[in-house]
Design a protein that fits this description.
Number of domains of chain A: 2
Oligomer: homodimer
CATH superfamily of the largest domain in chain A: Ribonuclease Z/Hydroxyacylglutathione hydrolase-like
Largest interface: A-B, 37 and 37 residues
Distance between the termini of chain A: 26 Å
Number of helices of chain A: 9
CATH topology of the largest domain in chain A: Metallo-beta-lactamase, Chain A
CATH class of the largest domain in chain A: Alpha Beta
Order of helices and strands of chain A: EEEHEHEHEEEEEHEEHEEHEHHEHEE
C-alpha cells in the first residue's frame, strides 16, 4: 500500500531513557487517517486509544466498526467515545456502532462526548427506527470555546482542546495522572507497619511520636515514571493558541490535510499543512508528532513526512492499522 | 469465501427461448446480502439495479459507497435511491453517500424514495453539520400500507410492495413497459411514408382512404421481447399477500434470514426462512428466486439453497459482487 512506502513507524519506547518502565499500557491504534473523500484502502478518521483496560474511541468515520473487527477488537469493549465535530467523516460510523452494540445485547453504560447536535442526530435515528437503546448512553456536550476537563478517572484526565474549524470542533488531550512513587521495600525493616508503607507511597515522610522524621519518602521511594500524554488535534486551521495547551505532550496527533504549496487552500477550508502541524509540534516541544487526515488528492505521503521533518524531526505518519505506544 | 462454496450463479439469459434478444441492459448487482450484525466480508443490504443507462440503488447499508467504488461504479451516476425501511442496516450508508456526492460537486438532481422519517434524519444530519446540499434531492415518502407507483419513466415503472416487518417496510417492483414491436422493414416498400412506419411501430394497422387495411401490424411487425420484471422483498415475515403482487416476475429477491428450523424465531422477529421465500416464489410462478439477508449465525449458505430448492428449484443465492441479468 502506498501509505506504507518510504516511511518508518513511530518508535515504541518500551522503556524511557531513565529506565522507568511504565507498567500501564498506553497506546493509540490508527483506524482511519483519510479525509472526507472516500477512497478504497483509506478510511475516514477514527483512532482507538487504549489505557490499561479501557478503550477510548476518538472520532468514528463510516464503517469504523468494521475496522475494529478487522483488528480483532470487540466493539463491546468500548467505554468512552469522543467525537470532535459533526462533519460526517468524523462520526458517520457512530449510529451504526451504537446499533450493533445494542443488537449484541450490551447492557453496560457508555460515555459519549461530542458537540451539541450529536445527541439530536442519534435520538432522531433511534426514534425513526422505533428502537431504543438497551444500555445507558451518557452524552456530555462539549463547549467548543473553552478547554474543559471532560473525564477524570483515577488514572487519567481527558480535556477538550478548542480548534479552529468551519464548525465547532475540539481536539482531546489525554493526560495520565502522576503515577505513585515506587516503594523501595528492601530498604525498610521487614516488620514495618502497613500504614507506614501507605504513607511513603503517597510521598509523605513518616514521623515518630516526637515529630522527628523516621522514614523519609526521598530515601525509601523512587519517583514513579513520568506521566504520559496524548493530544489529538483534528480538524483545524493552523492555530498558535494550541501550542500552550499541548506543550510537552509525549505524542501529538495533528491533522495535515495539505502540503505547504496548498497553504492558502488549507486556510480557506479550515485545515492545516504538514509544515504548520510541525510548527505547532516544534513550538510546543512535544515528544513525537503524528500526522494524518491526508487529502484524497495525494496518492503518496512521503512529501508530508519530508515537509514536516524540515521543521520537526520527530514526525511520523499515522498509518492505518498501526499502533503508537507511549 | 464461504459464500461462494457449493453454489451456482443464477444463469444469464442473454437470449430468451424464443430468440427475442433484448437490447436494453437490465441487471442487478448485489452489493451486500448480510443482515444487521456486522461481519467481515459480509456487508449490509444494498443492491444496484441497472436499466439502460440508469442506476437505481435499492437500500444502502453502511459503507455502500465503498462497495460501489470497489465495483468501479461512480456513485455520481446514481439517479434513483429506494430505501425499504428505517432499520440502520438498510440505510446507514445513505447520509455518507449523499455527503460524498455533495463534496464531489454534484449538481444533478437525485430522487429518493423511502419511509416518512428518512427525510428528517437526512435533514437533521445536514443541519448539524451546517452544510447544505448543492443538488436537488427530491424525497418522496412511501405509504407502507398500499402498493403505489413510485416512478414512471418511459421504459419502466417502480411500484412499492407493502411488507410485514416490525416497522413500516416496503419492497419494490421494477417492471419494464412492453417494448415496442420490431418493424419488419424489409417487407415494406422502400418509399413508404414515415408516418406509416410510426403507426405500425405503435402496433396499429394502417388504413387507406377508403378504410381498407393497407398494412396490417401483424404482417409487418414482430412482437417485442416480453417485458421483464424484478421484485425486491426485504425485510418481511412470510406474507402470502405478496404472491399476487409478484406473480410471474422474472426474478424475485426475497429475504431468507433463517433456515426452517428457526421458523418460530423468524416469525417472532418479522423475518422469513428459506422455505418460506421459496413458497412465495413457487406460488407466484416467478422465473428465478434470489435469496439473501442471511443471519450472521450462519457461516455457510448451502443449507439455504438446499432448503429452498426442495420447494422451488430455480433458487439461487444472492452473492456479493455478483450480477443477475434479466
Amino acid at each position: 500500500m502506498s501509505m506504507m512506502e518510504n516511511t518508518e513507524l513511530a518508535p515504541n519506547p518500551n522503556h524511557d531513557p531513565e529506565g522507568h518502565h511504565s507498567p500501564i499500557p498506553f497506546s493509540i491504534l490508527y483506524l482511519g487517517v483519510g479525509s472526507a473523500t472516500p477512497m478504497l484502502g483509506r478510511h475516514q478518521t477514527a483512532q482507538l486509544l487504549t489505557y490499561q483496560n479501557d478503550l477510548f474511541l476518538i472520532d468514528c468515520g463510516e464503517a469504523t466498526q468494521y475496522r475494529l473487527i478487522e483488528q480483532r477488537i470487540r466493539p463491546g469493549r468500548l467505554r468512552y467515545i469522543f467525537i470532535s465535530h459533526l462533519h460526517g467523516d468524523h462520526y458517520f460510523g457512530l449510529a451504526p456502532l451504537l446499533s450493533s452494540l445494542n443488537l449484541s445485547g450490551r447492557t453496560e453504560e457508555l460515555f459519549l462526548f461530542g458537540p451539541r447536535g450529536l445527541d439530536e442526530v442519534i435520538t432522531t435515528i433511534f426514534r425513526v427506527s422505533e428502537g431504543r437503546l438497551n444500555f445507558t448512553l451518557h452524552f456530555q456536550p462539549i463547549d467548543p470555546d473553552e478547554a474543559q476537563v471532560l473525564l477524570d478517572t483515577p488514572r487519567l484526565t481527558v480535556t477538550s482542546i478548542p480548534l479552529d474549524h468551519r464548525i465547532p470542533c475540539t481536539g482531546f488531550l489525554f493526560r495520565e495522572k502522576p503515577p505513585q512513587p515506587r516503594l523501595l521495600r528492601e530498604r525498610l525493616p521487614d516488620d514495618v507497619d502497613v500504614a507506614v508503607l501507605k504513607q511513603l507511597k503517597r510521598g509523605e515522610d513518616v514521623l515518630d511520636e516526637t515529630g522527628v522524621v523516621r522514614f523519609s519518602a526521598a530515601d525509601y521511594t523512587q519517583p514513579g515514571p513520568p506521566p504520559r500524554s496524548y493530544a489529538y488535534c483534528s480538524d483545524t486551521r493552523f492555530l498558535p493558541a494550541l501550542i500552550e495547551q499541548v506543550r510537552n505532550v509525549d505524542v501529538l496527533y495533528h491533522e495535515a490535510t495539505f502540503l505547504d504549496d496548498h497553504g492558502e487552500r488549507a486556510t480557506e477550508v479550515y485545515h492545516s499543512t504538514a509544515r504548520e502541524a510541525a510548527t505547532i509540534a516544534r513550538e510546543a516541544s512535544v515528544g513525537r508528532l503524528l500526522i494524518g487526515h491526508f487529502s484524497s488528492r495525494y496518492k503518496q505521503f512521503d512529501g508530508f513526512l519530508e515537509e514536516a521533518r524540515l521543521v520537526f524531526q520527530e514526525t511520523y505518519l499515522a498509518i492505518e492499522g498501526e499502533h503508537v505506544y507511549l
